Amino acid sequence: MALDRWTLRSTLVALALLSLLPTAWEPSAWASASAAGAPVAPPRSPGLETRTPPLARLASALPTAEAWAWGANATGQLGDGTTSPHPVAARVAALGGAVAVAAGDGHSLALQPDGTVWSWGDNRSGQLGDGTTTNRATPVQVQGLSGVTAIAAGSAHSLALGADGKVWAWGDNSTG
Question: What are phi and psi of 137, to 5 degrees?
Answer without folding.
Answer: -90, -5
